Predict the 3D structure of the following.
Amino acid sequence: MAFMVAATVFIAATTLLAKALGTETLGPPLHPLQISHGRFIFAWLAITSVVLILRPQLSATNLKLHLARTSCGWLGVTLMFAAVASIPLQDATALSFLNVVFCMLLAIPLLGERVGPVRWSAALIALVGAVVLLRPGAGALQVGAFLALGAALIMGLELIFIKRLAGREGPLTILFINNTIGVVISSIAVSFVWAPPTAMQWAALAGLGVLMACAQACFVNAMSRADASFITPFSYLTLVFAAFYDAALFGVRPDATSVLGASIIIAGAALLAWREARIKPSAGSPSGTSTNPKK
């Protein structure tokens, strides 16, 4: 449990730093592509240091899957960093929890999974929460909210590839390969928008990358020490820490709409996670997930 709580603290902190970098807090706003590049390059440096110390045997069984997974991860985190620069951290974080819903929906055509009434209901509940956070009828729709939705969709697709990779390589191998590919992709992308960061922005970029590496390490350790059904509920603490950071540093406090929308999304996502945990793995499913139509 402690590892998962630590992971949520670190993840929320990365979105806080991304917001500071994407606004005028630390200097001229950096492009989201440059922020995600900093995330990958400094996380890669941190993970590579661990690899050089531990010297594990590194091998990749399917580079195409790793490339697809990392491409989705890079695009998803870039959209998320763009979102937090324009909407409250708690709103963007709550919308990002829809990734499990999008994963469920994408698993139907991509993995051949069947979805029963409980999971459909959970998805519908979570999507209602998303509609609340989009604030229809409250004036112009916020572009940042749609960016966060796009991030959740792409990260849902990333979960599909993670399912395909599960059990094929060790956690450290996956983290190293993921961040190595991410450095290559983000370095190409950032070349089109690069701007010289200030000293404070360099420090924030380094902090963002290291914190993300720590978050990934804590998450992997948490999942290896307890069942996913026990660990998953603690992931929603990310929303609490994000709201706290936003209020403490930017003076942004969640309004009633934010609380209502986030609560509905968490209810739907938690119901979906609970149902997923009850579904036993089945060898007949392409992903190793049960395809029982009654579930």
Observations:
- Residues 281 and 289 are 5 Å apart (CA to CA).
